[in-house]
Design brief:
Number of domains of chain A: 2
Number of strands of chain A: 14
CATH topology of the largest domain in chain A: Aspartate Aminotransferase, domain 2
CATH architecture of the largest domain in chain A: 3-Layer(aba) Sandwich
Distance between the termini of chain A: 77 Å
Shape of chain A: globular
Strand content of chain A: 5-15%
Helix content of chain A: 40-55%
CATH class of the largest domain in chain A: Alpha Beta
Radius of gyration of chain A: 23 Å
Largest interface: A-B, 123 and 123 residues
Largest sheet of chain A: 8 strands, mixed
Structural class of chain A: alpha/beta
CATH superfamily of the largest domain in chain A: Type I PLP-dependent aspartate aminotransferase-like (Major domain)
Oligomer: homodimer
Number of helices of chain A: 14
Chain lengths: 411, 411
């Protein structure tokens, strides 16, 4: 080993270096920042009621139970939880998830079917990376989840969009579109969809699974909200109906804490090898300590009790926003009535551009997300998404009152 | 909203679905699993001494201090730490990192120059995604860090390899290679390199920065081990010498805990927009709770004191392994004498294939990593990497004794 200089020299400020567009990969350079993140800036201004975010209610976070879980993990598994872990994730947590999904019926899953990811956004990215190449098609509904478009866009894909009605994606219309575009994946949020709050019916789910088999196109069943049902009867998940044909994304973000970034992919063993190698190249493995903490938290029925607390509170908020909309919105405005989840969807008269209403709404101190960004084809100008999980009932009432005033003035 | 079926139907087991190679993206399908992960299987077998891993010593993890940090974070910032966070990372942690790098001289950094990543492996992936396209060249030393090759390989790149000597990458030889291959990035681990343990001299660092400017090729200064120096005088970092021309990757994995997966990219503001959008599409943001916990842990000089503890212990281990090698290795075996870090590098006589010795080593209950996988061009058959941070001194002594016995038998 060479001997180094004995004292640290004083360094002159280095000359500047200019990065040009040509330094970057075009796919990364052209990624757009999420409109959500831009609008969320307004959410924190004093007096503003935000119906824009997709955040869980922070006052419901199980802070004390997480503290106890941290404590138990550090006492029992301190050195393991702070050490490097497996790319697939912490075994006992994967066991627990597999068992829970198996109990829902139809499929028999083990830890070998589960990959732990850093939130469902990483699940989407890993699925995109595993399957998608430039100019491939992804089939999705119109509208669909913005974060999925953002994850898949990097891979240079195009979208084959399917209309929705109040029963979810119009699955009966997809054959000619599959035959024309040969999509690599069918992407869907079947439960309380983000952004519309609509749930796909059992008939459509069965039909979708059938068509996925017929055309040999895997389904991505993105299911962050499935546990949060406030009314109506549960519907079996597409994963439980479709088995190996279905790659399901699940997450603890909406039922425990999004800040811990623990989610999972449940899929056929045939796909797990590729997913795990992708995960390894991407970030080695998910935060080990957070996996242990979540595993500790879910024990002894604690998760189920916490979900009941969330459902009670979000149920009230959903009812409050729906009541306020009936009271304050003009007749020409239509909206969905979700049976669960965090969002509902507004349709304004065809000629209205929701994005153009946003500056006036900000002046009225209420914010929403214009619906266009949830449309892969740029349509949907007259739509908007509202969130009802974060603001308490009174704020929902007041926020809808403000929006109603604005609608009445401009429509 | 349609009314759903009133009770959950009993589900029949779904028909199988076969994934074929054509379902997958070739870039993902052809990713190789890290040889390290395969060899590490042997490390946990009873009686095996592993010189193969790159793990910090688990008995040195600051478990109690992490427990206190968790506790304080949940008391003071519970709801914020468990909520969604910014894609760039937790502001106060980014401030702290920027200030610490600024104190090292040369550069003035702020939080706007720092992106928090889920470990340095994700830093490598984000850099790869931001800059690299299929058939681009990356310049790196031969050998170089395996995880970087794994991250960059997905992007379909080729490598322009530069020889190393005991002063690091032979920077004086790169001009014709840059002119021929026009690399998009120059990748280097200048401090106690993984795998060789070699540190690049100040003269070479200055020269590398000059050439990066001359050819307008950014340098990736991957610096996980810089804080772990046991002897010799410190050398200014390439980031501090090169400023905006340099993208530095730093991490808490080796100085606090790898299981928490908190690392950072320090770079020019011009690059931060692209990095942040890539991060957002990839996984929204890094585990928020872990960022708060690390930020709490590093306060009041706690990190500096902990680094001193690590250095004392690793210093002893480095001296123990070097002593054992002098005692037990035949004259025909050469090795590096690192001034810090976790690794050293062995050169066997030219005709020996280290990978072929591995099965015999496993029988002798000692494992190492054959050096070939650290060579982007498949050379380096007669080399191997040894780790000295994980096993205690007695195990290092015994492990080297076993390897020495094997070498004496076959060389």
């Amino acid at each position: 080993m060479a001997t180094m200089n004995e004292t640290m020299p004083t360094l002159a400020p280095p000359a500047p270096f200019e990065f040009k567009e040509s330094h970057f990969s075009p796919a990364a350079y052209n990624l757009e920042s999420s409109i959500l993140r831009d609008i969320l800036k307004y959410s924190n201004q004093p007096g503003v009621i935000s119906l824009a975010g997709g955040l869980p209610a922070p006052e419901l976070f199980p802070v004390e139970a997480i503290r106890e879980a941290c404590d138990r993990v550090l006492t029992r598994h301190g050195t393991q939880a702070l050490q490097y872990g497996l790319s697939a994730g912490y075994g006992p947590l994967r066991d627990w998830i597999a068992e829970r999904l198996t109990k829902q019926g139809g499929v028999h899953l083990t830890a070998d079917n589960i990959l732990i990811t850093a939130g469902s956004q990483q699940g989407l990215d890993i699925v995109g990376r595993a399957f998608l190449c430039k100019d491939d098609y992804v089939m999705c509904s119109r509208p669909t989840y913005l974060g999925a478009l953002q994850a898949f866009n990097y891979y240079g894909v195009k979208y084959a969009c399917i209309e929705m009605d109040e029963q979810g994606m119009k699955v009966e219309t997809i054959d000619p579109i599959v035959e024309k575009y040969h999509p690599k994946l069918i992407y869907t949020v079947p439960n309380f969809q983000n952004p519309t709050g609509i749930t796909m019916t059992l008939e459509r789910r069965r039909m979708l699974v059938e068509k996925a088999r017929k055309y040999s196109v895997p389904i991505v069943d993105d299911n962050p909200y499935g546990e949060l049902r406030y009314s109506g009867a549960p519907v079996p998940s597409i994963k439980n109906l479709g088995g190996q044909a279905v790659i399901q994304l699940g997450t603890f973000s909406k039922i425990v804490s999004p800040g811990l970034r623990i989610a999972w992919i449940a899929a056929s063993r045939q796909t797990m090898g590729v997913f795990t190698r992708v995960k390894q190249a991407t970030d080695l493995h998910t935060n080990n300590f957070a996996q242990y903490v979540i595993h500790e938290f879910v024990q002894d029925g604690r998760l189920e009790r916490h979900i009941e607390v969330l459902k009670r509170s979000y149920h009230e908020r959903r009812d409050a926003i729906l009541r306020a909309m009936s009271e304050f919105f003009p007749d020409t405005v239509k909206w969905t009535k979700p049976e669960g989840g965090l969002f509902l969807w507004i349709k304004l008269p065809e000629h209205v551009d929701a994005a153009k209403l946003l500056p006036q709404a900000i002046e009225e101190k209420v914010v929403f997300i214009p619906g266009q960004s949830f449309h892969a084809d740029g349509s949907g100008k007259n739509t908007m998404r509202l969130n009802f999980s974060q603001p308490p009932c009174e704020s929902l009432h007041e926020g809808i009152k403000r929006l109603g005033r604005l609608f009445s003035a401009v429509l």
